[in-house]
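Obj: model holo form, ligand = 1,3-dihydroxyacetonephosphate.
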Amino acid sequence: MIARMQDILNHAYENRYAVGAFNCYSYETAKAVARVAEKLNTPAIIAFGAKYLDNMEFNEIHAVVSALLENHDVPIALHLDHCSKVEDVYRAINAGFTSVMYDGSHLPFEENVANTKRVVEVAHSVGVSVEAELGSIATGLDSHEGEVGALTKYTDPDKAREFVERTGVDCLAVSIGTVHGHYKGEPNIRLDILKEINEKVGIPLVLHGGSGTPEDKIRGSIDNGIAKINVNTEISSYTIEKTREFLKDNNPHLSVLYLRQQEYMMEVIERYMKLFKND
Ligand code: 13P
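Output (holo structure tokens):
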């Protein structure tokens, strides 16, 4: 069933687990998320990144996802991931997305506050949740997100408190050393900074760059306020690798290949969903 992201995240935050937000690019990806969520009986977030919308319109995504969620009995939110254009955020809200991420992290602090506040006012007037970002998440290998070569700028805990108070966002994406894409070397994930942010902010926090993040850091981040974890790169890279292997020995009909790929995506999603449940 289609659900409000805030309801899902508040429950996760209070009960110390995280909800996986899986980037989707097609019907097959969204279906893969819903099937695993139902299998594990856990809430989830179907996230469409503003960067991956060349082949679909917001209203088409909403129609497809809301119809498919009628067939799955777990709460799942439909989220717009990383959108830096306020007009596109409004288009997603109009189309029926249940939450949006306005990403003004590249802007000066005051501009990020002003834009985020505007988005929150509009979104909340129609019951849509808002995620925003403070700090800057580096770009690792194989990522299609963020700026190429972007470096980590850790979130300042005092600024985070001010940002949340002034904007009224529902959840905040923080930069603590995870990267979008695969890590180039040993990740330097600062749970100490996260702990301080969580103490000052008191709302569900969001970890971007889930792919390849060590399990102990995932668990440590959930213990310190992370209630939503985004996963993208690994869904794509694993599925492509497995597709290559499969096509070496097979010459399938396209419909068969799509089903296969859904199974590959489900393997990745299931692994992360189990980890995020924090049982
Ligand atoms: P990864 O590609 O590293 O999994 O990050 C996903 C993400 O943060 C989407 O916003």
